[in-house]
Amino acid sequence: MHKAVMYFGAALALAGALAQAAPTSPYAGGEGRDIKALAPEEVEALLEGAGAGFARAAELNRYPGPVHVLELADALALTPEQRARTQTLYREMRAAARALGAELIAAERALDRLFARGEATPERLDEALARIGAARTALRGVHLRAHLGQRALLTEAQVHAYHRLRGYAGEGAHSHGDGRQPRH
Asked: What is the pTM of this model?
């Protein structure tokens, strides 16, 4: 009897160890989300018009973003006109981004519902993905265009200072990645 209890205990310990070692999905816990493909913080960022990495290509290639330029306004020695135009650029970008963020959320919600209701077909999937793609592209464009507009408002010295202040002044900070020096 004592051996049986020992074997049973060992079997339980092994089963527990195997259960702990079993891989879990990185999606675990997302089943209860309103929109399965978007984490709550992603939804919040989209509704707020936050950059959420949409303009990283511009930001890291010496095209400053309006929100960060405003944060660094004193350090960049913005003129009153530059500050006012940057504030306008930021307000316009944020308003457009909020509207497009809401559009993207609605498109993702529609995709989620297709699957939740068992109504997904190749045709419906293609339509849903086209709506998501169009909203995401438009949203990214709003953020990237704001960086283009911001760059045009700054002097090259201010762009350089921004780049350094944001912590991008490491190796290769002055090139476009193709050996050319940045132009303004």
From this structure: 0.78
User: Over the stretch 41-71, which tens digit does the pLDDT of each residue have?
Assistant: 999 999 999 988 999 999 999 999 999 999 9
pLDDT in tens, 75-111: 999 999 999 999 999 999 999 999 999 999 999 999 9
Token representation of residue 87: 């504030």
- Tell me the C-alpha distance between 82 and 106, whole Å: 36
Rounded Cα–Cα distance for residues 150 and 139 (Å):
17
Tokens of 13: 């310990």
**Count, residues in the chain:** 184
- In DSSP notation, the chain reads -HHHHHHHHHHHHHHHHHHHHS---TTTTGGG-SSTTS-HHHHHHHHHT--TTTTHHHHTTT---HHHHHHTTTTTT--HHHHHHHHHHHHHHHHHHHHHHHHHHHHHHHHHHHHHTT---HHHHHHHHHHHHHHHHHHHHHHHHHHHHHHHHS-HHHHHHHHHHTT--STTTTS-SSSPPP--
